[in-house]
Design brief:
By secondary structure, the chain is of the alpha+beta class. Helices cover 24% and strands 22% of the residues. It has 6 helices and 14 strands.
Amino acid sequence: MTVDALTDVAGLRVGHATRTGDGWLTGTTVVLAPEGGAVAAVDVRGGGPGTKETDALDPRNVVRKVEAIVLTGGSAYGLDAASGVMAWLEEQRRGVRVGPDPAHVVPVVPAACVFDLGRGGDFRARPDAGTGRAAVEAAAACEAGAPVPEGCVGAGTGATVGPVKGGIGTASTVLDSGITVAALVVANAAGSAVEPETGALYGELLRGRVDLPEAGVHEAARRRLAELAETNAAPPLNTTLAVVATDADLSKAQAQKLAGTAHDGIARAVWAGAPAQRRRHGLRPRHG
């Protein structure tokens, strides 16, 4: 049975650590590979990325597999969450063997962050090594194939998409070939994921699955967004993170090509600017 989540790819587990209240609105999400690791690659875009250990994923480099992937809030500060994940993996003796003792390992844990600093009220409330450890322990405690909590959890806790709330989302599909492909996304985009005339999600429109809000609810939301646009607030700092997984047998080079292709999916689900900005500048959707 599938759960329409990243965990539909056999062996993957997902755990969240979420902090809210008392100035906190942030968290960390860990994708835990099966023991022995998983082939991984990366495609980083945008003008201000925050990452750790992504160079190890270059197909030209020696590392073949990763033990976990960390997605976190806290901007560059939050990358410290990966240290907690590495410490847990070391205790499990999982990582690249670098010495004669089985305990001599270096876990490869790529990490990427989104900007959510201060969204809960306290600029210094950000994930750390303890948050990362809590997230990987939550992942390890999950049953294989378990559903993945979505919304304002983990790395998506403080996320925004344009002028509305963002968060964590996940989905999967089985191709005609029988291969499973799944994705988990931290949606924290400067653009909008909502079509302004109908209030429908662009991703749902493109898939022909539209669940429109009631007219009165949508009109009230449009008025609030218009009022927000008139405040001339500073453009939001943003990053959208995605993990795409498959049970297809890929090399690192093939995985890197898949990672690059995945950006088209983001472009089809997020327009380049917020609704008022699009009307002001005549922008059209970025549909890949």
